[in-house]
């Protein structure tokens, strides 16, 4: 029977003999008590099969990442103000290029952290027991409905993941059209789609990796231009004046 951990919302497959006992969640190590009458009530539960809105599990929220990256950049620059005469001069006294590079770096790191959190969510979803042995040793036309119901018992915060969405769609397709070759083709196609979306989600970071060195080169050129322009030329008619 399935029981949802109240601490981390992980769906757990609890043996009937554990009803009324306090157990430890394998996902978050939290203590939870299984209600005494849970076995009887769970046996009669039939979740409503209603699809859920799938989130974009590859791309981070553009506006959110931009806002956070901008905030971190501003905070970092303000932090450098007291050190303007020292290390702060590297960021504050060398023109707009340093501001742009710092902003792109902070924005890029924000995107990476947000993607890391999304990956953590996907890893938690892999801990869900989608094919419990109590439902059958194989998936066929007689047991596929029970496996689909098992997925709909999973909390929405966990079931909306790449692996769960892909398996749910495959099972529902198998329920309506029990053709193994068609299911294999569907899973292969869906895997390619997810892989392409995941690869494409790094496009903006690749732009940053290209832009930051270019900005560094532009900053070097601007610095050389300022240095050359500030030279005391002396007698412009005498080329040897440039050597002094």
Q: Report mean pLDDT, rounded to a whole number.
A: 80
Global geometry: elongated
The side-by-side strand order for the widest beta sheet comes to: 1-2
The percent range for strand residues is under 5%
Please compute the radius of gyration using only Cα atoms: 29 Å
Largest sheet: 2 strands, antiparallel
Q: Level of helix content? A: 55-70%
Give the structural class: mainly alpha
How far apart lie the N and C ends? 88 Å
**SSE pattern, N- to C-terminal:** EEEEHHHHHHHHH
Describe this structure in words.
The chain is mainly alpha-helical. It folds into two domains: 1-45, Rubrerythrin, domain 2 (Single Sheet); 62-222, no CATH class. The protein has nine helices and four strands, in the order E-E-E-E-H-H-H-H-H-H-H-H-H. A hairpin with a 6-residue loop joins strand 1 and strand 2. Helix 2 (62-80) packs across helix 4 and helix 4 runs antiparallel to helix 9. The longest helix is centred in the middle third of the chain and has 30 residues, at 96-125. The model has no long low-confidence stretch (mean pLDDT 80).
